[in-house]
Design goal:
About 45% of the residues lie in helices and about 15% in strands. It is α/β, with parallel strands linked by helices. The longest helix has 19 residues, at about 20-35.
């Protein structure tokens, strides 16, 4: 195989409806599309759901492993890339028997997918120790892998990316109802950390907070409304559709990302691509993508007062926001376009397949 030859890439993933599943699914779909645009043949294999609610999830993984073994014997891929622990187990079982080069991305830490925590922890630890190559989504994840027993060799960071053609600085902006706007994007769950933004809002005057979480009638949005009423900012809190459209992001002075953990940094990258500065908690991929005082502000602790300081600094300084936003667009364009991410993945695939990259 030559480095210029197209690769036959098998991608194994786990579908699901939870927030972590959707984030991982979007990441995998974008990567697959980018690899296909580069001329590679990519075949995706989802881990099937168990037939019964009480079924052992390892049964579904076993079914997939046998299916993969049969398919890969008929048409052997050049490399296998598994996403998530369940996909990793299935891919490893089939690939080992056929001596296929494999790459694993755990997208960790994340809540259990279909197994109890102890079962998942045991299997993740084994995968971390034995996988031929692990492509972590962020630097923080490498630390987690080392704690699971993974040696530093055979490990690299393959981050998430952003659609630079969709998310751009130029284009329509959603109308605002206040002089300044902060936008937060994410699932309507406590781990998104939106309560930090609501509690910080009283210290950021003349500013509305728009949360792109979807309907405002769920338990967590209702909790946020109660907090907003308690701190006196109920009239400055709004909810909108969960899809972070470019028009919504462009309408913001600041895009705030305050999750407890974020393995992909999708919202921050989309904001940076739109030339909007980001205020983020320094966790997961956000620690990698957001450069403090260059593309936005990083807050080390989940504390409303510290978040309020960062937001105030950004909201009050229009010239500073423009500088940070321009730097964010440059960084997103140079490092996080999906074509660049796919090229990085391609080099990993060639390496594990034993092909020397130029």
């Amino acid at each position: 195989m030559d480095t210029s030859d197209p690769l036959r890439i098998a991608v194994v993933s786990v579908p699901g409806a939870g927030p972590t599943d959707r984030s991982r699914g979007a990441h995998v779909a974008e990567l697959v599309a980018a690899l296909a645009r580069r001329g590679h043949t990519v075949t995706t294999h989802p881990v099937p759901a168990p037939d019964r609610p009480d079924a052992d999830p390892l049964e579904a993984i076993g079914v997939l492993a046998r299916t993969l073994d049969a398919e890969w014997r008929r048409q052997r891929p050049d490399v296998v890339h598994a996403h998530g622990w369940a996909a990793g187990v299935a891919a490893q079982l089939a690939a080992t028997a056929l001596d296929l080069p494999t790459v694993l991305t755990l997208h960790a830490p994340a809540p259990p997918e279909r197994a109890d925590p102890s079962q998942r922890a045991r299997l993740e630890s084994k995968l971390a120790r034995t996988a031929r190559w692990i492509a972590a989504t962020c630097t923080d994840e490498i630390g987690e892998l080392i704690r699971l027993g993974r040696p530093r060799t055979g490990t690299s960071v393959l981050p998430g990316g952003v659609n630079l053609e969709r998310f751009t600085p130029d284009g329509p902006r959603d109308p605002r109802t206040a002089p300044h706007r902060i936008v937060g994007v994410g699932p309507a769950v406590p781990d998104s950390g939106f309560d930090l933004l609501v509690r910080a809002l009283p210290a950021v005057p003349h500013t509305e907070l728009v949360l792109a979480t979807g309907p405002a009638d769920g338990p967590y949005p209702q909790r946020l409304r109660r907090i907003a009423a308690e701190v006196g900012v109920a009239d400055r809190l709004r909810f909108t559709d969960p899809d972070p459209t470019p028009a919504l992001l462009r309408s913001a002075d600041v895009v705030a990302c305050t999750p407890h953990y974020d393995p992909h940094g999708r919202t921050a990258l989309a904001a940076m691509a739109c030339a909007v500065p980001v205020a983020a908690t320094a966790v997961g991929a956000l620690r990698d993508t957001v450069v403090h005082d260059v593309t936005g502000k990083l807050v080390e602790h989940h504390h409303p007062a510290e978040v309020a300081v960062a937001l105030n600094q950004l909201v009050r300084d229009e010239f500073g926001r423009r500088c940070l936003g321009a730097a964010g667009r440059d960084r997103a364009s140079a490092r996080y376009g999906w074509n660049r991410i796919a090229a990085d993945a391609e080099r990993i695939y060639l390496d594990v397949a034993g092909v020397r990259c130029p």
